Amino acid sequence: MCSYVCHGHGGNDVSLDVDFPHGPYCYFAVVVLSILFPAVQLPPIKGEYNVGIVKLHLPVNFSSVYNESPTNESDGYVSARILYPTLEEPQDLPYLDHELALEYCKETIAFGAPSPFKEFGFLFHNLRLVQMPLSPNAKPLDNNKLPLIVFSHGLGGTAITYTYQTQHLAAQDHVVLVINHSDGSAPVVQKHDGTKHF
Known about the structure:
By secondary structure, the protein is of the alpha+beta class. 19% of the residues lie in helices and 27% in strands. The chain is built from four helices and ten strands; from the N terminus they run ββαβαββαββαβββ. It has a six-stranded mixed sheet with strand order 5-6-3-4-8-7. It has a two-stranded antiparallel ribbon with strand order 1-2. It has a two-stranded antiparallel sheet with strand order 9-10. The relative contact order is 0.21.
């Protein structure tokens, strides 16, 4: 067994254990995996402002919408992110939340890949190296008339999936509310009580 380790920014390393004999096979595996799955870095966001982010769970009264009580999947809350312009300096935050990263990789492949590849969650592990320049819980701009964009992900997506796009909108002087759906259209969502819904 040999380990393939990708070194990310801020000490965010990802290791992948490959079950090959030691020696030339291990070196070959390292070279092939480096070519097939390079560490991804997204281009910097171009905008007038830095971007702050708040992660939260919004209480929702589903009974007024569906005439029924909340299901176990929703637990009466909707997981969301708010991205907004700020003047505070950003820090490098992981693209994938640490508490969801492994499940996200595994469930995203299982959700959308054809049958032979549904167990190949490691194909997305390079996303665990990506860093995003964000300011968690930063002070927003003093402008109280910023336009609001409500962003709803598509089938197989999550609020995390669209962080880059929504960060770009926020850097252009918008407040962006990004909602996670817990109706089965997202591969994995962290619920209000901390459990994960697949």
